[in-house]
Amino acid sequence: MIRATDEWVTFERHFQQIIQLSAKTVGQNRLVYSPSWVKAQAALIQFGQQAGLTAMVDHYGNVYLDFPGEDDRVIATGSHMDTVRNGGKFDGLYGVLGGLQAITMLKTRFGAPRHTLRLISFSEEEGSRFNTTFSGSKYYALHQSVGSLSDQNGISFEQARSQAVEQLQAINHVMVKRPALPISFTELHIEQGPRLINAHAAIGLVSGIVGQRRWSVTVHGTSNHAGTTPMNDRHDALQAAVTIIYQLNELAHHLSPNLTFTVGQLTVSPNTSNVIPGTVQFTIDARHADDHLLDRFEQLIGETLNRQTDPHIKYALKRYVQDLPATFDANLLARNQQLAQQLSLTSQVMVSGAGHDSYVMNQVTPTTMLFVPSEGGISHAPTELTYPADLKNGIQLLMASLHAQSY
Amino acid sequence: MIRATDEWVTFERHFQQIIQLSAKTVGQNRLVYSPSWVKAQAALIQFGQQAGLTAMVDHYGNVYLDFPGEDDRVIATGSHMDTVRNGGKFDGLYGVLGGLQAITMLKTRFGAPRHTLRLISFSEEEGSRFNTTFSGSKYYALHQSVGSLSDQNGISFEQARSQAVEQLQAINHVMVKRPALPISFTELHIEQGPRLINAHAAIGLVSGIVGQRRWSVTVHGTSNHAGTTPMNDRHDALQAAVTIIYQLNELAHHLSPNLTFTVGQLTVSPNTSNVIPGTVQFTIDARHADDHLLDRFEQLIGETLNRQTDPHIKYALKRYVQDLPATFDANLLARNQQLAQQLSLTSQVMVSGAGHDSYVMNQVTPTTMLFVPSEGGISHAPTELTYPADLKNGIQLLMASLHAQSY
Question: Listed GO molecular functions (chains A, B) (predicted)?
C-alpha cells in the first residue's frame, strides 16, 4: 500500500517530467504531433502502464488508459495534452495527470470498480498548430476527421499525424484502438479566469459553456499622404475602424455585462507613420451563454457598419466561428455540488467562457467539468499558476465523483 | 536651333529612360545608392553633358549640372532622384528633369546668362532605405553627415554610398566637387495632394512648409483570455488605444480644420483573435503651419493620456520628430505670382503639407517652390499622375522664374 504522501510525490514527479520537455522554450510548447508532444504522450503511457492500467492509442494519437471494471460501461475523465505556443503548465495537462492521479488513488484504495475507469488524453484542443480545434475529441466522440490542412511550415496534418502516432503505437503493450464511448465524462481543468479567486472559492462547478462567435471586419478606405491630404478629403480606414470599435464596445456593454467583447487582432495597411491607412482588418470575439443575445449582437454589428456615412469607405463583415452554447448534465452537476460540500470545499456554479473538450464530449455523453482557481486569472501564458493545495482539492473532488459513479 | 516640339520630345525621352529603370518592379524603385539609382544619376549626367552643361558629383552622390554665367553667383533649381518603395513616376524626378529642361530651353533661347544656372539632383530625400531623410540636401547645404546606419539587409550607409558614388565619379569629364551655395533655390514638384485639382488651379505657389511632429504612444495593459476574463476585470490595451485615438481625433478637429492628424501605424500584441491585447503601440503624425498650435496639440495628447482612469493601464508618450514650420522667401513668391499671371496660369498660394529638399535649402538661401496638380491627390503610389499639359505649365513658369533671376 502506497502512503498518501508518496502518491502526491508521484503526481509531482509526473508533472515535472512532462513540464521539463519544454525546458528550452519560453513557457510550455507541446504543439500537436511535435517531438515534445510525442514524448509527453509516450511518458503518459509509461505512467499508466506503471500504475497497472491498459493503454490504447487511436489513429489521431488520443491516449486511453483503462482500469477495467466488472462490466464494459466506462466512466471517463481527462483533458488534452497539447498547449498553445508559449503556454502555461496547467492548461490541459492538469486534467490529464489529475485524472490519472484520481484513478490511480481509487485503484489503490478500493481495487477493481463496477464500471471501467478511463483516463483520456486528447491529442489536440488548442488549434495552435493547424487551423482546427478539438480535433482529438472530435475524432473520438464524433468520428470527425480533419481535412487537408498544413501548419505554418507547410507540413500537412496527415504527415505530422501519421509520423507522430506511429511512434506511440509502437510502444510495447499499447493497443491500437478507438474504444467505445463512456457513459459519462468529467473534465478537470484550471478556470483560466479570476472568478474563483475573486470569490475565494476552491471549486468551480461548470454548468455549461458560452456560445461563441467570431467575425472578421475589413475596412477599405483610401491610403494617401499624411501631410498633403486635407482632413475633409480623407477616407482613413483606421479612423473608421476606431469609430466602429468604440461604438461596438458601448453597445456590447449596454446589451449585457456578461457579454464578452474582444477585438484581439487588428492589422493596418500599409502601417507607416506618415501614410493614411488604406485598409484595416480586425476580429471580433463575442461570447454569452444565451445564443439569442449573440444573434442580437450580430445584428448590432451590421447596423453599426451600415450607419457609417462616408460612401468612399467600404466594410466587409464575415462570421467565421459560430459555436452554440452548451449545457452540461444537471445530475452530475448536482452530485458534484453535494460531494464538494462533504469534502468541505467551497464551490460556485459557473459557465465556462472558454471552449473545452467537454464541449464535444457533451454531444455524445453526460458531461461535467470541475474548475480550480487560476492565480491572477492568467492563462495561455508562462505565468499561469495554480497552487498545489488547489490542484489537490480538484483531484480529491474528481476522485469522489468517479468513486460515486463507478463503485 | 531646336524646334519647340523637339525640345518636349527630348524631355519625354529623358523621362521614359529613367522610368524604364524600374520596369521590372511595381511602381518606381530608385532607393538611394541602389543599382537603378546609380543608373538614373548616370543617365542624368549624360543628358546634361549632351546639352553642354558641366557635371559635378559630390561625395554623397548629389549631381550638379551647371550652365556657367558671366559671374560666379548661382541660381539653382532641382529636386531629388530617389523614390519611396513602389513609388510614383513624378515625385522628385519631375523637379530634376523639369529643371534640366528649363535650363536647356533657356540656353537654347537666350545663350549664356549673367548668373550661372544650376540643376541639382539630390541623392536622397525620402528616407526609404536608411532611417534618415534629406541626406543629400543636408550634406550640400548644411554639411551634415549621416551617422552609422544600415538598411534592412544590414548594408551600411557608408558602404552603399562609397560604392555607388565611385561609379558616378568615374564617368568621363565629371568633376568631384561640392560646389558653393546658390543665391536662390527653386524646386518644381507635384503637389501630392488634391487642393490644386479641387480648385482647378494650374500652379501652386508654395509659401512654406508645415511644422511636423510625430509621437509614438505605447499602451501597456494586461493580455488575457478573451472568454474567461469578465469585462469588468479587463485591462484591454486596444480598447484603451481606441478610446484615446477617438478622443484625439475630436480634439484635433476642434483645434483647427487645417491641423492634419494621422495615426498611420498601429501594432497589437499578441494580435490573436481570442486573446485580449496586452500592448498596443501607435504613432501620431500632426502638421500645421503654426508651431504654437502643435505645442497646444502636444499638450492635449498628454492631457488625454492622463485623463484615462484605469490605473492598471500605463501609457508612454515619446516625441520622435519635431520639424519647425518653414516660411519661404516672400520676394521670390511675389515674382512667381506675377510671372504666372503673365503666362495666364491660374495659381494659388499654399503651404506644403509634406517635407521637401526646399525645407533644408531654405535654411541657407532664399527658396521657393512651384507645385503642379496631382490627379486624385495621389502620391507615393504607382498611380501617381500629372498630365503632360500640367508638367509643361510648371516647367514654363520655372523657366520664366529662372530667366527673371539670371538674365
Answer: hydrolase activity, acting on carbon-nitrogen (but not peptide) bonds, in linear amidines; metal ion binding
